[in-house]
UniProtKB/TrEMBL annotation:
The keyword NAD applies. Belongs to the NAD(P)-dependent epimerase/dehydratase family. The keyword Lyase does not apply. Residues 7-171 form the NAD-dependent epimerase/dehydratase domain. PANTHER family: 4-EPIMERASE, PUTATIVE (AFU_ORTHOLOGUE AFUA_7G00360)-RELATED, NUCLEOSIDE-DIPHOSPHATE-SUGAR EPIMERASE. It comes from the Bacteria. This is NAD(P)-dependent oxidoreductase. InterPro entries: Epimerase_deHydtase, NAD(P)-bd_dom_sf. Keywords: NAD, Oxidoreductase. It comes from Streptomyces olivaceus.
Amino acid sequence: MPAPRTVLLTGAAGGLGTLMRDLLPGHGPGGGYALRLLDMRPVEGEPESIVADLADRDALREAVRGVDAIIHLAGISLEASFEKILAANIEGTYNLYEAAREEGVGRVVFASSNHAVGYTPRPQGDDPLIPIDTPRRPDTFYGLSKCFGEDLAQLYWERHGIETVSVRIGSCFPEPTSVRMLSVWMSPADGARLFHAALTAENVGHTVVHGSSANTRLWWDLASARALGYEPQDDSEPYAAKLLAEQGELDPANPAHTRLGGPFVTDPPIWPY
Ligand code: NAI
Ligand code: 15L
């Protein structure tokens, strides 16, 4: 596979999309990745971005035409009614893969989530890190939609030869803001490193990876991400003392502290629109 250069970034107006617009291009070949941007909201300062909903199959087909790869971030990123999740995350992701198939795009990087396996107990004491083949335990309709996206990616690999790296992202924000996040945080710079590895690794078929930095308090195994060439450079530990002083240690009697998905297993944040 030739190294991808032109990449469609869906969800470009969102938090992660905004970070990646800034950080990802520099990793690309030659002059860097050429990003084509898509979101249902206009992307600030990017008049050429494509404003389209994932429900619009004609717009998706046009958006993917001629790109070498797709990074699929668009969708509902929190919990919502089943009907909303069905439209944006399930049908929307299907529509995007159909557009990729119709236009011959060979590689997708899919933003999956820790919430596909959110009910998994976090490791305690000498427990091993959570392996990548841990059983699915979605904690919300949102997490369930990420399970669907991963399975859709598997189907489109086996049936249509479209390769995907599904990145089960922990928490990718400029800084960790909770004690739980110390264990699942992926710095934006490491996020760009991981997306670059996922775009360029050879023969990935459908590969599922955990998306985190090299955190001292890591809960899950990064082996399948490292096998793509990902070398995380960051660690949340410099934030630990302040967060522990403010919030205290994780409580072993509180499921929001003992399950990978954190508050999503008890009180999931709701998508506002
Ligand atoms: P976000 O909510 O900030 O951005 C999502 C973007 O998708 C928004 O700009 C929104 O307008 C767009 N969008 C939503 N529905 C759409 C539709 N039907 N058609 C077109 N665009 C639509 O979320 P964030 O944090 O940037 O996350 C990006 C992706 O990464 C999401 O798929 C999320 O589930 C996933 N993820 C993010 C994590 C994180 O820590 N930021 C952790 C795990 C997964
Ligand atoms: C996610 O999947 C969400 O999209 C993001 O907003 C965070 O809540 C993250 O998980 C997390 O678990 O911290």
